[in-house]
Design a protein that fits this description.
The complex is a heterotrimer. By secondary structure, chain A is mainly α. Chain A contains twelve helices and two strands; from the N terminus they run ααββαααααααααα. Chain A is about 70% helix and about 0% strand. A six-stranded mixed beta sheet of chain B has the order 6-7-8-3-9-10, sandwiched between helices. In chain B, helix 2 packs parallel to helix 4 and helix 3 crosses helix 4. Chain B is elongated. Classes of the chains: A mainly alpha, B alpha+beta, C alpha+beta. Chains A and C meet through helix 1, helix 3, helix 4, helix 5 and helix 6 of A and helix 1, strand 2, helix 3, helix 10 and helix 11 of C. Chain A: GO terms for molecular function: ABC-type maltose transporter activity.
Chain lengths: ~290, ~350, ~750
């Protein structure tokens, strides 16, 4: 066998492995998609996720939800809730990343008392199950009078997104050569200017990826959102999805349709950010 | 444009002491080179001058001004990094402008200065590119440009040539010296390469173990190394260092087999002391058998064009220590030959302290 | 350039303004105070409610809450004086609401205004009464009855045996079940149980009652139905609906909610049949949906008026017409709607569900026992005995109060020790120049981390601290008292049961460790393998593949976890479809697997789901780590004659390991606490054996009598386990690193 033949065979094998993995990763999602577009439920065990009685009704019903206000005016509820989801998620990501950036930078670059302990403590917080810390968190939000607000919700999400963002960004900052900041400082920058004008732009891919993760924690979450928000107009989309599951019956078709609609923006974001993702997550990708 | 003085600099990192009482005294406008093997503390010393690290003890003065506690940006310095440290997200132009912008220089001045520097370094055509699109040599020039454009009182160079290939290195070395002469600012240059050190320096500092081993003009240090370390470190091929007993017969001193003809130069000779005999390969001359101080049993001959580097072992050396002589190419020495050598000049060091006996 | 910079700032400012304005409205003050009403209605019932509210005219703020979140929301708002003035919920949660001070009694005056006690069906009113006071006004009554398909069964069969015999008819169509209902659930089983003279709960003693001969016989009877192919064995609510709609089930037991799904389907409803074996009729559990007042709502005139309006006769009529719900009022007799008439008859033949804590504690053991019997893991008798033990376990008396003095002293000593350690650290860092100097040099860093420290302290550390503290307490949420380490002792001694019995801490821990190890292994193996293949220099379509492979990440995990559960359904899941396809293709005769009936398969299903969810993260981390491996090292190894495998194991993997280790550590921690997948996919099936520590903690906190302190003790143990493990591995790793150096 010649080298080029072997190369070809290997290439085929590689594609086969990847395609198998792609099938594995898409199959359950295709089921959700097929359910979302099904007009009725099949009672056969099917292999292929093909919708039965294809229809757009489910999507239409989910997207077209409206609400009549007290004054009789109609608002497009779904649109409002989509906006809520996006706003809450962006706010979570902005708050989380904005707080995590300087913290992660200090952990990556400075020597200070409590550095090792601080990092350990942060890792340790990840080990405590939220089951037991959720109620105290509510109580704290109540003290801050933020319980029924989207701000409170954002803070709840930030509590999970900040530690993760700090881990992510710390390794990203560590991967940036210190020379760059030193050059900037010799060039006349203060440490803070060097951080702002050199480190941050260089770390942009990693920041983008961290932002996306923080966005997703908030965007896909429904337990806290359902518990904290007391106004239909303030609901985020996952809460709306959860509404399709009732005490006695569940509208899985609507649930699936909602899930598809909800996931679309995230998929688009993924597509945008994915080329950064490798560099951003794995550190090391930044070179002069 | 500023003299640099450092007094009794001590730098510790935790338990490790990196610099132990270093003194620098670099005249205004001089090109000073700090040379030493890796780990000698030369880069740390440079970073202390830059203000990137804080001294544990001691004082740094630029001219009359004490800068020990000042931030880098308040020291009026520019630095060229080994990695160049070009800002990867900025074009070459923005890289050059960065320091000027921070000082709120007006656009016209900025443009003019960038133009001048770009012309001087021949990077005018690269101004709109990003660093990743430049070759190694181009990056190096941009890094130089970024330092020059600021017109600082003091240039600091941290092994700026080590990432270049040898041919380019020589050329850039010459350029750096030329630019220094044009700009007239004081320069401090760190390298582990003795050729760079010898060729560039007005003032040379040889560092080892966190201490200055010797300060002076390169040629003075080459000629009169104060101790074994300096002797062995400068010069290529390196000086041969051999242990030998010092004996005296009448007026004639001998170090082992070798006659010390200019004994008058050495003020600290004591008979029957153990010494280290230093012989530069270039201070050896092939001679007639009668004149010979030493005989080299040749093992390997390297031809370098005008001269040969001859590796071998001295006759009668029980320890068979490697020995090198630099001989004219026309001698056509062969492997296995025994070459009689006459010592033109020698160095003597105390075997215990390794200090020169001069 | 400058203009571009300005644009960027402008964009940022705009984004901030957008965020702030969008967050604003929820804080705005309202001029006139509307009555706040919460409900979990959907569809026709929601429409009916809207119509009733429209008839009232006053300002109402309605919130349709997801059913799953309803109780939690009430519990987390009303005690704080927030949340609704009025809410609609099933009566069986009243006991809990009363204990938590969520619900206020209906005054005699208010009852009179809505028509007085005689206007209500006696049983329905009794259901919402405690110690002579009504805690809500009944709106509708719900119980299961018999739906039948007239095309298959002309008349409602008189007895269960008659239904079972339907399939014996010569012209009975292929693949049609005579009957379908949620046989595996205690709720539906209760109706059959009643026919055998048994009950789930004894209202007099307020105790577990699902035991004894009646209970065993009822279970044997169901087994007989399954064996005879009368009912499908794996039916959940959705399947029952679908079978009936598709004409694949001649009769089903279901409640009024099914009717909403049957538009365009021919059906009729009759009371549940008699069981000939005993001669008794089946008697379902009755739920009364009631409108309730929160304590602050009780103070509001408008809220009280609205309550009377909604519960009043006009409201009942609208509900009956629009939503076909069975009124609980005597002055609104069921119309000539045959559906309502059938349900009215059935409601008269039903047992109102108890609303006590003991009743709520019956469900989990009873459900598990029924499933165990139907899977034939256990005979009815031992299964029911086990359920009894489980019930007693949950309802065991809380530990006695303890003296808090020792813990105060201990805390004091710990904080002294901590301070001492801090000073020691600082000294070391500062070297000879001292702590103060080290602190001074730390100051700039503190400026950077200040915001993060405040945020993490308030949002993460304080909640954990209080949450952990709760482990030392027991009792009802608002009257917890200090019990010392009693919760820990109870957990670690498996509450007196054998240490290796199902559900004991040690068994669950073993499952959790297995779960973590297996998952992390597959995450890593698949992630690294795909990362390696994708980073082949000649790989085409890399970007596309990368996006497709990280899609599992982008879809909310609760959706995909449920999709996986569906795929593992024994009869209709895609995996079964796959098995059929393989059989057809290769002529095999593989049996479809009942995935959630055995530990090994249920665990496998959980793992498959979680691996699917988790491998993209590892793949992306691997890709990043691989990008940082210099090519020349690999080439050097190739020149040195290393085979491909050797290059992988001796160069590539060791070189990416340092980058991967933090990700693997985090991944392991997350997996250890990955509660979603276990909860949504296997739900602990079979018999709680696939539960991991976190889902166990969750059950104690929310479903088993709200033993919050007990759940907190679980959380603390989980934390301590993970922390100890991480310290040990940390030490081990730094140790081995030093060896290398």
């Amino acid at each position: 066998m010649t080298a080029s033949q072997r190369e070809l065979l290997e290439s085929i094998a590689a594609h086969a492995v990847i395609l198998a993995a792609v099938a594995f990763s898409l199959y359950p999602i295709l089921w959700v998609v097929s359910l979302a577009f099904s007009g009725s439920t099949s009672l056969e065990a099917q292999v292929m996720p093909v919708p039965t009685d294809p229809t757009l009704d489910n999507i239409r019903e989910v997207v077209g939800s409206t609400r009549t206000e007290v004054d009789g005016s109609q608002i497009w509820l779904f649109g409002r809730q989509l906006l809520n989801s996006i706003v809450v998620s962006i706010a979570t990501a902005v708050v989380g990343v904005a707080i995590a950036i300087p913290t992660a930078y200090a952990f990556a670059r400075f020597e200070f008392i409590g550095k090792r302990g601080g990092m350990r403590l942060l890792l340790a917080t990840q080990m405590f199950p939220a089951v037991a810390s959720a109620v105290p968190l509510f109580m704290i939000l109540e003290t801050l009078e933020l319980l029924n607000t989207r701000t409170g919700l954002v803070l709840c999400y930030a509590s999970t997104s900040i530690p993760f963002a700090v881990f992510q960004l710390r390794s990203a900052f560590e991967a940036i050569p210190t020379d760059l900041e030193e050059a900037a400082m010799v060039d006349g920058a203060t440490r803070f200017q060097a951080f702002l004008r050199v480190v941050l732009p260089v770390a942009r891919p990693a920041i983008a990826v961290t932002f996306l993760f923080a966005f997703m924690t908030a965007y896909n979450e429904f337990i806290l959102a359902a518990t904290l928000l007391n106004d239909e107009r303030a609901f985020t989309l996952p809460v709306v999805l959860q509404r399709f599951i009732g005490e006695y019956d569940a509208r899985w078709d609507l649930f699936a349709a909602g899930a598809i609609v909800v996931s679309l923006p995230v998929m688009l974001l993924f597509y945008q950010v994915q080329r950064h993702m490798v560099a951003g997550l794995g550190a090391g990708g930044v070179k002069g | 444009m500023v003299a640099v003085k450092a007094q009794n600099i001590v730098k510790r990192f935790g338990e490790v002491t990196v610099l132990r009482g270093v003194e620098l005294d670099i005249p205004d406008g001089a090109f000073a080179v700090l040379v030493g093997p890796s780990g000698c503390g030369k880069s740390t010393l440079l970073r202390l001058l830059a203000g990137l690290e804080q001294v544990s003890e001691g004082k740094i003065l630029f001219g009359e001004r004490e800068v020990t506690q000042l931030e880098p940006r308040d020291r009026d310095i520019a630095m060229v990094f080994q990695s160049y440290a070009l800002y990867p997200h900025m074009s070459v132009r923005r890289n050059l402008e960065f320091g000027l912008r921070l000082r709120k220089t007006d656009a016209a001045t900025m443009n003019q200065r960038v133009g001048e520097v770009a012309k001087m370094l021949d990077i005018a055509h690269l101004l709109e590119r990003l660093p990743k699109d430049l070759s190694g040599g181009q990056r190096q020039r941009v890094a130089m440009g970024r330092a020059i454009v600021r017109r600082p009182a003091l240039f600091l160079f941290d092994e700026p040539l080590s990432n270049l290939d040898p041919a380019l290195r020589t050329q850039v070395r010459v350029d750096i010296r030329k630019q220094h002469d044009e700009l007239g600012a004081t320069s401090v240059y760190v390298t582990h390469d003795q050729v760079e050190a010898m060729t560039l320096a007005d003032v040379l500092y040889v560092l080892e173990g966190g201490e200055v081993q010797q300060r002076g003009r390169p040629i003075d240090i080459y000629d009169e190394p104060r101790n074994c370390f300096v002797a062995g470190f400068l010069g290529s091929p390196a000086m041969n260092l051999l242990r030998a007993p010092l004996t005296r017969a009448g007026e004639l001193w001998r170090a082992g087999e070798v006659a010390v003809r200019d004994a008058g130069h050495f003020s600290k000779l004591r008979p029957d002391a153990e010494v280290i005999l230093g012989l530069r390969p270039h201070d050896l001359r092939a001679c007639a058998e009668a004149e010979a101080d030493l005989h080299l049993e040749v093992e390997v001959v390297e031809t370098l064009g005008p001269e040969l580097t001859v590796h071998g072992v001295l006759r009668g050396d029980a320890q068979r220590q490697p020995f090198i002589a630099a001989l004219p190419a026309k001698l056509a020495v062969q492997k296995g030959e025994r070459v009689p050598l006459r010592v033109e000049r020698l160095h003597l060091f105390d075997a215990a302290t390794e200090q020169s006996l001069r | 350039m400058r203009a571009a910079l300005h644009r960027r700032w402008a964009k940022l400012a705009f984004a901030l303004a957008f965020v702030l304005t969008a967050l604003g409205p929820s804080l705005e003050a309202r001029a006139e105070e509307p009555v706040v009403l919460w409900h979990a209605y959907r569809g026709a019932e929601e429409e009916a409610l809207e119509a009733i509210l429209a008839a009232w005219g006053g300002p109402v703020e309605v919130l349709a809450v997801p059913y799953d979140a309803f109780s939690t929301k009430l519990e987390s708002t009303v005690p704080l004086g927030e949340g609704p003035d009025l809410f609609i919920d099933a009566h069986e949660r009243l006991g809990n609401f009363r204990e938590r001070g969520i619900v206020a009694p209906i005054s005699a005056e208010l009852l009179a205004r809505s028509g007085g006690a005689e206007a209500y069906n006696l049983g329905a009113l009794e259901a919402v009464r405690f110690e002579g006071e009504a805690y809500g006004l009944p709106l509708s009554q719900k119980c299961i009855a018999l739906y039948y398909n007239p095309a298959l069964v002309a008349e409602p069969p008189a007895s269960l045996e008659a239904i079972a015999a339907l399939g014996d008819a010569p012209d009975w169509p292929e693949g049609v079940y005579p009957l379908a209902y949620e046989a595996r659930g205690a709720y539906a089983h209760a109706a059959l149980l009643a026919a055998f003279g048994g009950a789930l709960h004894d209202p007099v003693a307020d105790d577990y009652a699902f035991e004894g001969e009646a209970a065993e016989r009822s279970l044997d009877y169901v087994l007989g139905l399954i064996d005879a192919g009368v009912i499908p064995e794996d039916a959940d609510g959705a399947l029952v609906t679908n079978l009936f709609k598709a004409g694949k089930a001649a009769t089903v037991f279901s409640g009024p909610w099914l009717a909403a799904d049957l538009e365009g389907v021919e059906y009729a409803v009759a009371p549940l049949p008699v069981v000939e074996a005993t001669g008794e009729p089946m008697r379902p559990l009755l739920t009364v949906e009631a409108i309730m007042l929160s304590p602050h709502g009780a103070e509001k005139q408008a809220a009280r008026e609205l309550l009377a309006h909604i519960a009043g006769p006009a409201g009942a009529r609208i509900r009956a017409e629009t939503a076909r719900s069975l009124s609980a009022r005597t002055d609104v007799p069921p119309s000539d709607d045959p559906l309502l008439q059938a349900f009215a008859t059935q409601a008269a033949q039903s047992t109102p569900m108890a609303s006590t804590a003991a009743m709520r504690a019956v469900w989990e053991p009873a459900n598990r026992a029924i499933r165990k019997v139907l899977r034939r893991d256990l005979e009815p008798k031992p299964a029911l005995e086990e359920a009894r033990r489980r019930f007693d376990d949950v309802r065991r008396p809380p530990p006695p109060p303890a003296n808090p003095a020792p813990v105060v002293v201990l805390l004091g000593m710990l904080s002294l020790l901590g301070a001492g350690a801090l000073v020691h650290r600082a000294r070391k860092l500062g070297g000879a120049s001292g702590t103060l100097d080290a602190l001074r040099r730390s100051l700039p860093a503190y400026a950077y981390i200040a915001l993060g420290v405040v945020a993490v302290t308030v949002l993460v550390i304080l909640p954990i601290f209080f949450g952990a503290g709760a482990a030392l307490f027991a009792g009802k949420p608002h009257e917890m008292y200090y019990v010392g380490l009693a919760n820990f002792v109870a957990i670690l001694t498996a509450r007196g049961a054998p240490l290796l019995s199902t559900g004991s801490f040690y068994v669950v821990l073993a499952v959790t460790v297995l779960w973590t190890v297996v998952n992390v292994f597959f995450h890593l193996a698949i992630g690294v393998a795909l990362g390696l293949v994708l980073s082949r220099p000649t790989m085409r379509l890399r970007g596309l593949y990368r996006v497709l492979l990280i899609v599992p990440w982008a879809v909310p995990s609760y959706v995909t976890a449920l999709a996986w559960r569906g795929m593992f359904h024994r009869q209709f899941g895609a995996v079964t479809g796959l098995i059929h396809a393989i059989n057809d293709l290769f002529g095999f005769s593989l049996e479809p697997i009942a995935w959630f009936s055995r530990f090994s398969t249920a665990f496998t299903a959980n793992v498959a789901t979680n691996v699917w969810l988790g491998f993209p993260f590892m793949m992306v981390v691997t890709l990043g780590a691989l990008a940082a491996v210099p090519k020349d090292v690999l080439e050097a190894a190739e020149v040195d004659g290393a085979s491909r495998w050797q290059r992988l194991t001796q160069i590539t993997l060791p070189m990416i390991a340092p980058t991967m280790i933090p990700a693997v550590t985090l991944g392991a921690i997350w997996t250890f606490n990955m509660f979603n997948v276990v909860f949504l996919v296997s739900g602990g099936d079979p018999d709680g054996s696939t539960d991991i520590l976190v889902s166990e903690a969750y059950r104690w906190a929310f479903t088993r009598d709200a033993q919050y302190g007990y759940a907190a003790a679980y959380a603390v143990l989980i934390f301590l386990l993970l922390f100890a493990t991480s310290r040990i591995t940390d030490r081990f790793m730094t140790g081995s690193k030093e060896d290398r150096a």
